[in-house]
Specification:
By secondary structure, the chain is α+β, with helices and mostly antiparallel strands. The chain has five helices and six strands, in the order H-E-E-E-E-H-E-E-H-H-H. Helix 4 packs across helix 5. It binds zinc ion.
Length: about 160
């Protein structure tokens, strides 16, 4: 199929090219292109609209970005939703700490639960954030909603 042949309009995206559309903000590189309503960067990649951080992960690791149920997820080590710094973007195994045990209900470690709640609580505008976190942590929206509302994982106490 000629469709998949890289033509002049389908130059392969590189990390350098992505970073050329960012501005530096301390250690982070903030995306200046299109933004999703929830705050993360969006770009066209291989003919599809994608989150920029998933494209960066794909280029950085040289693999297709993990899908929702692949058991892996793209995550950021900083708290900047629009950051696309490859040094801040990693792929981790979902639920790696509770591996094998209660995959759906017990898939998150206590540290992950604390991190999720801390991130959620830090948002001034909560609208859309449960969905965003569900995508980030590769779980369903109802599950994420129960986590942020502290209806499950009740034994995980917030850090004081
Ligand atoms: Zn960052």
């Amino acid at each position: 199929m000629t469709r998949n042949k890289p033509g002049p309009k389908m130059k392969p995206k590189t990390i350098e090219k992505i970073l050329s559309r960012t501005r530096q903000e301390s250690e982070c590189r903030i995306w200046l292109g299109a933004m999703h309503v929830q705050g993360y960067g969006m770009t066209r990649h291989k003919g599809k609209m994608r989150t920029v951080h998933s494209v960066v992960a794909e280029l950085k690791y040289g693999i297709e970005a993990p899908g929702r149920y692949s058991g892996k997820r793209v995550t950021r080590t900083c708290n900047n939703i629009a950051c696309v710094n490859p040094d801040h973007i990693t792929i981790v195994r979902a639920g790696s700490i509770n591996e094998g045990k209660n995959y759906v209900r017990g898939r998150f470690s206590a540290d992950e639960i604390r991190a999720i709640r801390k991130e959620y609580d830090s948002y001034k505008v909560k609208y859309g954030m449960v969905k965003y976190l569900a995508e980030k942590y590769n779980c369903s929206v109802p599950l994420m909603s129960s986590i942020t509302r502290r209806q499950i994982y009740k034994r995980v106490k917030d850090e004081t």
